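User: I'm curious whether this sequence folds into something compact or stays loose and floppy. Could you predict its structure so I can see for myself?
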Amino acid sequence: MKTVRKSLILAACAIMLVCATIAGTLAYLTSTDTVTNTFTVGNVSITLDEAKVDENGEAVIPEQRVKANTYKLLPGKKYDKDPTIHVSNTSEDCYVFVKVENGLSAIEGDTTIAQQMNTKGWTVIDEEKGIYGKTAPVSAGTDVVVFENFTINSTADAETLEEYADAEIKVTAYAIQADGFESAQEAWTNAGAEAQA
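Assistant: Here's the prediction. I'll summarize afterward.
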C-alpha cells in the first residue's frame, strides 16, 4: 500500500511539474507604445534698415542697407529714405508696428511721410506717440517698407533750413506675435509694447 501511495504521489507530482512547465511557457500577446511630447519655443524676429544714400540723398547702386544716413537739406529736394522691416524666415507670424519721430514734419513738401504711410496701409495706433501698425499679421520672410522718401518744402529758405540742421527722422520698429490676438490694436495694447514706446 505504501508503494502504491508513493507511486500516486510521484505521479501527481510529475503531472503538476508538467502542467507548471506548460503554463510557464504560455505567454499573452502584448504591445506597448509611448507618446513623447517635444516642445520648441517660437520666436518673433525682425530687423530694420534702409538703403544707403550718397551725398545727394540718392540710394547707392548696388543697393546697400544701413542703419543711418546723413542728408544735406535743400529747398524742394526729394531724398531717398526707405526704412524697411524684415521679418526673419524663422519668425512666427506677427503684427508689426513703427514709431516715427519726424523732426522735419514742419518743413516737408507736398507728399509727407504720413501720407506715404497711409498709402502703404499703415494705420495710426497711437497718434500722440506716433505709433503706426499693419492691421494684418505679417508672415515669416516678409519685408515691409515703412515709407520711401521725404521732401523738403520748396519755400524753405536758408535760415529755416539752418534751424533744422540737427533734426532727425527716427524710425523704431516693433513686432508682436499674432497668435492670441484678434487685431493689431489688441496686440499693441495687451502685449506691453505700449509701455516701451
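Summary: The longest strand covers residues 94-102. The beta strands are 46-51, 65-66, 78-80, 84-87, 94-102, 122-126, 131-134, 143-145, 149-151, 169-177.
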